[in-house]
């Protein structure tokens, strides 16, 4: 679901490259629903232009002179929180810094290649515009210095081979998933995750989740057995499915076409979980733009699985969970800080999975 505005979304472009500023301005201005009100070559100029121009959204480069993008973002979210879309390089360092930016409160990011930036950004013009439009309607919270929301500790002794959790997310999802997994005990049921993310970013994302979770978190490998106490992140650019063989579940990766624009697709993952885990599964659809995952969550509900959607108040973008609620796919709407507890409290069920 896109934010609805009676006027165009006002954007300030912040990048130290004159070429990128010109390119971004042109691409964004091609959308009649967006107005680029200015640009800035560094955060000090940007700070003045924010006061003068009152933009709705910033696009922010990660690496800039005089003050790096993360420092500027941290100050901004502490003093004047507003929607920010990061512009990141498709490198390992770019991925790490972008995940840091999302943790600080950036709404989303767009990746630019290190070579032939013009072609790379132009090829993603429609996606860039969509991300900026949706960012304008995002909920952005003030950053409290040194504060990270503390999840409730999960119960101990939860181990079972009969349960499977599935999580889907997009915009705002990297932090939402981190908080959900941080609330899980070390022996929680096996968990499969589909987050819309580029291929270069999914590995660092899984590593980051692993550092913040009592579970073992890794990027999923084809044919890998699902184990309790482990979470498996779909690699960027590949679909993740669950298949069952006997009493065990396995990861299955696929390179088929994107489904409704996404690979990995939450619908693809959820539908496979519905088919192979049935009522043994519990799933949650978290924050994100669009409607990926809504149909898959409905398929899960129809086979007796427990289905949750993040509530509007705690979602950065209530697109995907909102679409699931509209379809009647979610049995409950849950605040983000209660999602882990809600999944864990779902009782184990007797079911026949074919």
TrEMBL record:
Enzyme class, broadest EC rank: hydrolase
Organism: Novilysobacter luteus
Record flagged with keyword Transmembrane helix: no
Membership in a protein family: Belongs to the CheB family.
UniProt entry keywords in alphabetical sequence: Chemotaxis, Cytoplasm, Hydrolase, Phosphoprotein
Enzyme Commission numbers on file: 3.1.1.61, 3.5.1.44
Name the UniProt record assigns to this protein: Protein-glutamate methylesterase/protein-glutamine glutaminase
Its biological purpose: Involved in chemotaxis. Part of a chemotaxis signal transduction system that modulates chemotaxis in response to various stimuli. Catalyzes the demethylation of specific methylglutamate residues introduced into the chemoreceptors (methyl-accepting chemotaxis proteins or MCP) by CheR. Also mediates the irreversible deamidation of specific glutamine residues to glutamic acid.
GO terms for MF: protein-glutamate methylesterase activity
